[in-house]
Specification:
- With 465 residues, the protein is an alpha+beta fold.
- The protein has 3 domains: 118 residues, Aminopeptidase (3-Layer(aba) Sandwich), CATH 3.40.630.30; 161 residues, 3-Layer(aba) Sandwich (Aminopeptidase), CATH 3.40.630.30; 168 residues, Aminopeptidase (3-Layer(aba) Sandwich).
- 34% of the residues lie in helices and 28% in strands.
- The strands form 3 sheets. Strands 1, 2, 3, 4, 5, 6, 7 and 15 form an 8-stranded mixed beta sheet that branches. Strands 16-17-18-19-20-21-23-22 form an 8-stranded mixed beta sheet, sandwiched between helices. A 7-stranded mixed beta sheet has the order 9-10-11-12-13-8-14, with helices on both faces.
- Strand 22 and strand 23 form a beta hairpin.
- The two termini are 30 Å apart.
Length: 465
């Protein structure tokens, strides 16, 4: 099971090792965004299979960035780790801010998906050489504004800035806030986050520079190189200095962008002014951030189906089943072979309808389907299809009350549930396992499925279409 650690300025060096060579081009794959927007993203991270995995908690929803491989990282294995983590936690895998070039791979990987690709979150991507030169008729407006700025402030010069320039930067924030009149809450938050990034300059992860005139900063920019992309986190200029914005954009790109192919000036966050401005700089591409919510084959089913065999009926558990179902679930001696102890997940006192409620909730979330196994109307056991792997597979388990054991009911119920899963639900495969000491289960599974392996604890089985 993955274990995550909250992203902080102290441990962000781990993320930086991956981001400094990341080719995704999107601003989310940068230390600056994780630190500036941590109160919104609530990011945490872990490493597995040579990859960085970042988990975000956004408005109560758990979403994952696409894993970032290291030099020998295994992206497929990292995605599998995310899927297993979500299965164990009882949540759906959601991958957000996925670069567009990985969308086909994810569409092939998952059997059910809801894909969102909103225009508003796309990053503005520019060729670094375009912003450094402003060459061509398309940039005549920017060049004219820069000339206006140079005429008004002939002493203006671009300077590199470090943590040692804290006093100069603080004076700039005071000048900027005196002119800052945006009422947009996000814009106000972004300003606060931008100021919070300045102390991180001492880390050496960021490139910072500004335009100085008359001993004061007229513009300030902070960026972070991620692969061949220079991600611009902070880009501010005094409104009282016309032309300062295009002047800092060009000067910064010329000074810091020579070793980069792209400059990412991030998204516009639904701000009309920002969109207009960023489009005027003629982006070469809009970096799409694909949002993949992974689905489940159960999503198409509104109710637990009714299955009939020669002797049995498999259907939904009801309130009338509570006494027999409780007896089945509380039989510790029998259920040690079931491989699950309800006490591990129990919160508070166990109510009379606890087990029935859990079964119904799991189906309501489309995480599992619990079939009541009935003989002449009486509940004698259950078959459970669960642990959906989000890629066309699920695990099947079956247990029969001890007084009905030895008559083949388990084999009959298991085979019916497996056939329904494969041919009605549409799974590609059904898996099962049993403890090595459980000889009756081994015989039952061997009669329904083919062996697929073993370890020190279990025998594993597989049934495919």
């Amino acid at each position: 099971m993955l274990t995550f650690e909250k992203v902080t300025g102290e441990n962000a060096e781990v993320l930086r090792r991956y981001y400094q060579r990341c080719a995704y081009r999107l601003c989310e794959y940068s230390v600056g965004v994780k630190l500036m927007w941590q109160d919104y993203l609530h990011p945490s991270f872990t490493e597995t299979a040579g990859c960085l995995i970042v988990r975000n908690e956004i408005r109560g929803e758990t979403v994952f960035d696409l894993p970032v491989p290291g030099e020998d990282g295994d992206l497929d294995a990292a995605l599998t780790a995310i899927e297993d983590y979500c299965t164990e936690r009882g949540i759906r895998p959601v991958l957000s801010a996925v670069p567009e070039e990985y969308s086909a791979m994810l569409c092939r990987r998952y059997t059910r998906l809801t894909l969102t690709n909103e225009r508003v979150w796309k990053d503005y991507l520019y060729h670094a050489e375009d912003l450094a030169s402003f060459a061509g008729r398309g940039y005549s407006g920017q060049r004219n504004h820069i000339k206006q700025f140079r005429r008004a402030y002939p002493d203006a010069a671009f300077v590199e800035l470090t943590a040692a320039d804290g006093a100069l930067i603080e004076r700039f924030w005071a000048d900027y806030e005196a002119e800052f009149h945006k009422e947009n809450i996000r814009a106000q938050e972004e300003l606060g986050f931008a100021k919070g990034l300045v102390p991180m300059l001492e880390s050496g992860w960021f490139r910072c520079g500004g335009l100085v005139t008359g001993g004061r900063l007229a513009a300030l920019c902070i960026s972070e190189r991620c692969g061949e992309t220079l991600v611009t986190h902070v880009e501010k200029a005094l409104y009282s200095h016309p032309g300062a914005y295009p002047a800092i954009v060009q000067a910064f790109a010329a000074h810091y962008g020579a070793d980069c192919a792209w400059i990412n000036r991030e998204d516009d966050a639904r701000d009309k002014g920002l969109r207009t401005s960023k489009l005027q700089y003629r982006p070469a591409d809009l970096g799409a951030k694909m949002h993949f919510a992974v689905g489940c084959e159960l999503d198409d089913w509104d109710a637990v189906p009714r299955l009939e065999t020669e002797r049995l009926v498999l259907d939904e558990l009801t309130e009338a089943d509570i006494p027999a179902y409780n007896a089945l679930c509380l039989d510790d001696e029998r259920n040690r072979w079931w491989g699950y102890d309800y006490r591990q997940d129990l919160h508070g006192a166990r109510t009379e309808d606890y087990f029935l409620t859990v079964a119904h909730e799991d189906f309501a979330k489309r995480l599992a389907v619990n079939f009541a196994v009935r003989l002449d109307g009486a509940l004698i056991g259950e078959a459970v299809l669960y642990r959906f792997d989000w890629k066309g597979g699920a695990e099947l388990g079956c247990r029969i009350a001890p007084e009905y054991a030895g008559h083949g009911y388990g084999t009959e119920a298991f085979a019916a549930a497996a056939d329904w899963a494969l041919y009605r639900l549409g799974l590609d495969r059904v898996t099962a396992k049993c403890y090595k000491e459980n000889t009756p289960s081994y015989r039952m599974l061997s009669s329904c499925m083919r062996p697929s392996g073993e370890d020190g604890t279990f025998y594993y089985f597989l049934k495919k279409v």
